Amino acid sequence: MNMSPVPVDPVLTAISVAYANQSYIADEVLPKVKVDGAEFKYTTYRADESYTPADTAVGRHGVPNNVQTGGVLKPAACVGHGLRFPIPQEDIDKGRRAGRKPINKATVLLTDQLMLARERRVAGLVFDADQYPTSQKVTLSGKSQFTHADSTPLEVIDDAMKSCLIFPNRMVLGAEAYHKLARHPHMVKAVHGNSGDVGKASPQQIAEHFGLDKVLVGNAKINTAAEGKDMALGNVWEDSIALFYQSPTPDADGPPTFGITGEYKTRAVRQWPEKNLGGEGGIMVQVYESLAELIIAPLAGYLIKDVLA
Q: DSSP code of 65?
């Protein structure tokens, strides 16, 4: 039951939900799954359970052996994320005369900012070495970095994939790391069958080479300059690579999967009159959602840090 004194605006919410920015990949890396409360629990599984063979033999008058899961429930909590945009009545009147709706533009702007903030959170979590056990991460340096002429990126990635408890089906990497890998002579030679000195591998070709379902490239940019300073664009996704297994049916209490985003409050847009705005008042627009980004099976992933010098 929605107890909010300000109802959801269905038209603006539809605009917000339909908005897409192809630079953002957070929803594909840690997909959203519905949870039944702001505080919820998710299931983690013991690594040995899936790999210890059970006695499946049944005698003529016997009964099958019982199998129980030792999954552990862990607590998590969704955090509210929202932004507001004040629109003075003067702008609303001006837009009406010009056949424009500044409230729609404000909704798109807020949605994009909310998605950029989520992109940054997910990138920071997935590329955080502290989220992975020692066996599931490596930091490259010197000749092992893909920028070095003697580097062997295909071997590095193959070794990482073999170390995952569940064979990965996805790769995510920063834009600069992708471009270097895609043009590396070993990668070019592998996908194009030439000498490796000309060409570039597409994300689809890299996925096919390593037997992955998808390669996700983080192209999003962010202004890293302090407020009031000249803009300095940086990459949201740094020069690292994460390999992971994503279940086709990710869920907080479902089969093992690398990570999820618990979603308690689906993104919604509200608007209300704001009398304390300029000389004539105006309208306040708000976009809000409640989420919890989580890595729930770190053994189903592998992190390769600092692939570029």
A: P
- SS3 of residue 87 by DSSP: strand
Express each pLDDT in 31-82 by its tens digit. 999 999 999 999 887 655 555 667 788 888 788 887 655 568 899 999 999 9
> Could you tell me if 114 and 267 are in contact, meaning their C-beta atoms sit under 8 angstroms apart?
yes
Q: 69 is written with which tokens?
A: 């899961």
Distance CA 242, CA 127 (A): 7
Exposed, middle or buried: residue 221 (CB in 10 Å: 0-12, 13-18, 19+)?
Answer: middle
What letter would DSSP give residue 56?
-
CA distances from 89 to 83, 202, 278, 281 (A): 20, 49, 8, 6
**30, 174, 277 from 221: Cα distances, Å:** 19, 11, 32
Contact criterion met (CB below 8 Å) for 264 and 72: no
Residue whose C-alpha is closest to residue 21's, from 212, 221, 238: 221
Does the pTM surpass 0.85? The reply is yes
CA 239 distance to own-chain centroid:
16
Tell me the C-alpha distance between 290 and 82, whole Å. 8
**Which stretches of the chain are assigned E, i.e. beta strand?**
32-34, 39-44, 72-77, 79-88, 137-139, 170-174, 214-218, 221-223, 233-235, 241-244, 259-274, 282-295, 301-305
